[in-house]
């Protein structure tokens, strides 16, 4: 199978399904799941991922209204929640597409209510509560509870849900998590005292799900990185929920040559050969999201063996040492992320050696990298981000 000649990301949708099942099995039966598909499904492609996880979720979370609209345009009908702030210039679209905003200020809720009333509809909203992230949300105090009561009286909105987000659920020490969760449940009680009930309460992220935290007992959890088969950190347990990475990054050797002692490789000549070596060129670089900070440190897999990066990663190419892989040939498959035979290069490994963050690596796989979707080892779909049209610059 060679769907592209330069580089591609293979997305294993069977792994996505297996990850959803594994999480489902670790949740109380009455707890629903929301699939977080922001940043285009953490770089995997929001639409194919949403389609794949649809049987397991009650809804989806995205970062912006535009991400939500893309899902709607591809036939996703379930609940969609925007996790960030939505500008009032987009309120009509929120109502039109029935996409839920996260809200926490009275005025924005009032304006949305007016918009919905004018359109003859009701807008569903989820309240964002700030229990410690200091990102967005209302403070969980009596004043906010009074405000929520007033929101609940507005004719054009329905408070469908309320959530908070944990800053440290992925850490070994759960003290901060516990304090945040307590602040949230106390706030739920303050609202109950005002006869405001919240149908969908949700707090847990992937860390909460794999760590079997108490907040999994609310109405819903928000699964993010775990859908894609990565654990949120190396401090979370890996026994309760077995995850399988869904993305592999594959390329091909474009050129092989022999260099002599004293020869330098790539910009700056940071690698100098001390013996005769066989060097392979890979047509991938930081322009594809393959980190330059892997220069001289990372490795790739060729014929099931590790080949280390020589010198700097360039924008579109880099070189590896194949001296000890004598069979290596031009056009051979190269694995930058994923498995080849017994060997495996994980996103976590790349994060570790580059000094980066695993979430950032998958989100940063570039638009020059086509995504290829696999089920039962067969290609069932593709997405080529690069084959795109500019507006305003004419056409041929
Ligand atoms: C991104 C995000 C999530 C998912 O986080 P993961 O660590 O990927 O599970 C959940 N909730 C909110 C509010 C988020 O911003």
What descriptors fit this protein?
396 residues; binds pyridoxal-5'-phosphate; alpha/beta; single chain; 8-stranded parallel sheet; 26% strand; Lyase, Ornithine Decarboxylase, Chain A, domain 1
Average of pLDDT: 97
- Terminal-residue CA separation: 33 Å
The CATH topology of the largest domain: TIM Barrel
Strand content: 25-35%
Major sheet details: 11 strands, mixed
What is the overall shape?
elongated
What low-confidence regions span 5 or more consecutive residues with pLDDT below 50? none
Give the number of helices.
Answer: 11
CATH class of the largest domain: Alpha Beta
How many distinct beta strands? 21
The hetero compounds bound to this protein are: pyridoxal-5'-phosphate
Structural class, judged by helices and strands? alpha/beta
Pathway: Amino-acid biosynthesis; D-alanine biosynthesis; D-alanine from L-alanine: step 1/1
Function: Catalyzes the interconversion of L-alanine and D-alanine. May also act on other amino acids.
Active site: 38, 267
Catalytic activity: L-alanine = D-alanine
